[in-house]
Amino acid sequence: MGKEDKYFVERRNVSSQEKLKRFMKAEPLYGTAARVGADGNILIMRWREGKRGTINSEDYSSLTKRQRPDSAQMRQGLKSKSVSSSEVVEFDNVEAAIRSVCYILEGQQHEERQAEVILQRTRYLIDFFQEHELSKVPLEQRRALQEETIAMLSDVGLDPESVELEVKMLMIFWTVKGSLGQDTRNRDNEMITEQALRAAQRRARQRKQAVLGNITLKYTPIGGAFALARTTARETMFEVGDEVDRRLLPNVYLDNPEIPVWKDIDHTIKKIDALSEMLEDVLVMPYRPIALMGKGYLEQTKFLLERRTSAALSELHERGFVQGIRQTMSLDPEIGDFGRTLLKNAYVYPENPS
Q1: 307: which of 177, 214, 286, 312 fits an S-S bond (Cβ 3.0–4.6 Å)?
Q2: pLDDT in tens, 20-48
Q3: Cα Rg of the chain, angstroms
Q4: Is the C-alpha dihedral spanning 67, 70, 75, 78 positive or negative?
């Protein structure tokens, strides 16, 4: 199916428009088609195929170039073309985003298999009818071929009673029709038979190319970006939390507000600054809010230490910044948010999903 047979639309409702605005403001995640917002939410633009005549023009706006008023173009386009609607999907958890991409790619493999079965069957039938004169193949044998075709297609989910995509309906129709060797008037017709089978082949190739181009090439790098973002977030939080537990919290300036201020406080300030910068690498939910909270405590602590006064050290403890660092960034799940978040999201696929 060529591009001219497509009609592109987007939803008009408030929720969809708000998601679209957030998507446009978000930054690309590692150069992929996925985007990540400042809050760590992940957003992906998806396209969904719709059956011709099933999209309500009141709920959608046209994305196709307008040569006429939108309402007029919508009425004609929705009736005469297959419809592809845009949808922004938002994830507040990178683990859920990874699972979603895995399911999409698994479904893509099934779609490829369906197209390949059509291609294999039509090649066989074309060769069969080229090797055997149609009029000399008994009708019962051709009916058996047709039943065999129906069974093969059903085995991969190509059931005319259940499929919704128009391209699949056409692939099924022409392959099944071509298996019998007859035209629409139930007359033996070699030319119509070959045309039907080759039409099914063309659509199967187009479907396979569309799946590879629109799904595999898009979602494979997205899946890699999600995995990288998750790994980076977890490793960064673990590294920072470990440094906080082992070195920062026991540091004399954070441990004892009455300690005299010496020149070595500069080393502590630089270390805090480095840890704060590391947390910028935590991009995605559910890790980013906790990382930014920890970063906030580190920056407030650094600000007070830069005064290099005993009063500032006292204020550091009085205002609860040291306790905030401990409760936010400790890797001990009984103490710190870092530890609890890392433990809670240790597995992309929960061992005991509810």
Answers
A1: 312
A2: 899 999 999 999 999 999 999 999 998 77
A3: 30
A4: positive
How far apart are alpha carbons 75 and 196 in whole angstroms?
30
Q: What is the distance in angstroms between the CA of the first residue and the CA of the last residue of the chain?
A: 41
Looking at residue 261, its amino acid is: V
pLDDT tens, position by position, 159-184: 888 887 878 889 999 999 999 999 88
Question: For residue 261, what is the DSSP state?
Answer: P
Give the C-alpha separation, 195 to 157, whole Å.
24
* Secondary structure (3-state) at 251: coil
N residues, the chain: 354
Q: Is 32 helix (H, G, I), strand (E, B) or coil?
A: coil
pLDDT digits (tens, 9 = 90+) for 173-218: 999 999 999 988 889 999 999 999 999 999 999 888 888 777 888 8
3-state secondary structure at position 42 = strand
Residues 6+ apart with CB under 8 A from 80: 7, 52
Give, as one character, the DSSP assignment of residue 188.
B
Alpha helices in the chain (DSSP H): 14-25, 70-80, 94-131, 139-155, 166-180, 190-211, 217-243, 252-255, 265-278, 288-305, 310-318, 321-329, 337-344
> What are φ and ψ of residue 26, in 5° steps?
-70, 160
Smallest CA-to-CA distance from 350 within 99, 106, 102 is with: 99
Q: What is the pTM (predicted TM-score) of this model?
A: 0.77
Of 350, 109, 101, 346, the closest CA to residue 226 belongs to 101
Classify residue 248 as exposed, middle or buried by CB count within 10 Å of its CB (0-12, 13-18, 19+).
buried
| Bridge partners, residue 9, by sequence | 62, 85
> Are the C-beta atoms of 20 and 10 separated by less than 8 Å?
yes
How many Å is the maximal CA-CA distance in the chain? 106
